[in-house]
Design brief:
5-stranded mixed beta sheet; 179 residues; 6 helices; 15% strand; 34% helix; alpha+beta; Ubiquitin-like (UB roll); DNA polymerase, domain 1
């Protein structure tokens, strides 16, 4: 017996009222039911980060979240980052620093970097933040060093190995958004 449940979710600013099978993941809702294919299905086990989206401003792996769990939430996918005529600073930095090769992981990388900048701006710490304490960075805000960026982006895998360019892109986006 299949159980269905009605949900209301605001995706990239648009309200969607839809009935879903309670076993449907957020990723499958986005891609298969709503046609938002920017968010990628990589491993489907929460290991690669290709499906990263933000729910109520917090990044999650949409392949691990049930659609019913985001009822009455706001979801931001890669399609919701930036405007129709302008790129978000993270998107622009990825272009400027060649932060992609094949591009498959790019939506998840950008979504994760977008959330990383919000997390950093509000002072959230990472495991790398504690290593930075020797230079006094924990006195206020963690310094967004290369190590800090790598730690915070560790859940996103790039099979092409564009990591150094991705780190450069995130650092440039951080600089652009702090000005």
């Amino acid at each position: 017996m299949v159980s269905e449940h009605g949900i209301a979710v605001r995706i990239n600013g648009t309200l969607h009222e839809i009935t879903v099978d309670v076993r449907t993941t957020l990723l499958d809702l986005l891609r298969e039911r709503l046609g938002m294919t920017g968010t990628k299905k990589g491993c489907d086990h929460g290991l690669c980060g290709a499906c990263t989206v933000a729910v109520d401003g917090e990044r999650i792996l949409s392949c691990l979240a049930l659609a019913v769990s985001v009822d009455r939430s706001a979801v931001t996918t890669i399609e919701g980052i930036g405007g129709s005529d302008t790129l978000d600073p993270v998107q622009q930095a990825f272009l400027d620093h060649d932060g992609f090769q094949c591009g498959y992981c790019t939506p998840g990388q950008i979504s994760s970097a977008h959330a990383l900048l919000r997390e950093h701006a509000r002072g959230d710490l990472s495991a790398a933040s504690f290593d930075g304490d020797r230079d006094g960075s924990l006195a206020g805000h963690p310094v967004l060093t290369e190590q800090e960026i790598r730690e915070r982006m560790a859940g996103n895998v790039c099979r092409c190995g564009a990591y150094s360019n991705i780190v450069d892109a995130v650092a440039a986006a951080a600089k652009a958004t702090s000005q």
